[in-house]
Amino acid sequence: MKVVNKISLWIYSALLFTFLIGCTSGNNSQTSSEETVPQVFTEEMQSETTPEEALEMLKTGNQRFVSGDLKYKDYRKQFEQTAKGQYPHSTVFACIDSRSSAEQFLDVGIGEIFKVRIAGNTVNEDVLGSMEFATQVAGSKVLAVIGHTSCGAVKGAIDDAELGHLTQLVDKIKPAMEQVPDSIQPRTSSNQEFVDMVTKNHIQNVLAEIQNRSEVISNQVESGSIKLVGGMYDLSTGEVTFFE
Ligand SMILES: [Zn+2]
Predict the structure, then answer these.
(1) pLDDT in tens, 80-138
(2) How many whole angstroms from 181 Cα to the centroid of ligand 1?
(3) Taking the domains of the chain in order of start, what are their residue ranges?
(4) Which residues are within 5 Å of ligand 1 (an ion), measured at CB?
(5) List of E strands, 165-238
(6) 21 Cα–ligand 1 center, Å
(7) Distance 167 CA to ligand 1 centre (A)
(8) d(Cα 106, Cα 238) in Å, to the nearest integer?
(9) Which mean pLDDT values do the consecutive 10-residue runs of the chain (244 residues) have?
């Protein structure tokens, strides 16, 4: 049994090494043997991954998405291999926008990232609870809050949208409007520059709010066991710009 575990650990280490080498070597062309290796993130890989390495995986995954050089994914093998457990390296908090799907724009497979999704990346207690589970309990190393360009929820805040429960949701975005310099005109939802600046400010506010409201998360950030990072996904280029 121990021998089997050792062999498994060696295989996982080799996979992680191959993956990391692939991440750092730029436009390396995939070989057919690499393409046949299922990419499943294991407990060993999760425990050996640092927050910095996990963030690097998100960045290189987005680079693959932009270039179209997507990592091989056999979803059938992946769901079979992840059925008994999950060890995601990261957690992504994103908008519900149908064009802003983190698995796609970060080029990750089944079991690699937790997702929390809500219109306009707004925070509530259940969102915080989900993030606390994904990091402290389930061991993911990065908590990335990723907004996107032309966000409908942000436009709703700018337009003072009122509808059922949506009213209180967009209210949470409004403080970010005041933080945009007066020189940016017109301050309307049809000005994409203004919309995107409001969104960036809002993501910064959300990063602060998460730490202010969740001791569980702020403690992990302070100890360095997780990395909290913001980002913007550009719908027209496919690129994620991380705020660091
Ligand atoms: Zn949105």
Answers:
(1) 999 999 999 999 999 999 999 999 999 999 999 999 999 999 999 999 999 999 999 99
(2) 22
(3) 1-36, 39-243
(4) 95, 97, 151, 153
(5) 227-233
(6) 34
(7) 15
(8) 10
(9) 48 46 37 52 95 98 96 84 95 98 95 97 98 98 98 98 97 98 97 98 98 98 98 98 94
Q: Which residues are part of a known binding site for Zn(2+)? A: 95, 97, 148, 151
Rounded to 5 degrees, φ, ψ at 101 are: -95, 115
Alpha helix stretches (DSSP H) within 106-191: 125-132, 152-158, 166-171, 175-178
| Cα–ligand 1 centroid distance for 137 (angstroms) | 28
Phi-psi region of 207 (alpha: psi -120 to 50; beta: other; left: phi over 0): alpha
Please state the separation of Cα 185 from the chain's center in Å: 31
39-243 belongs to CATH 3.90.1150.10: no
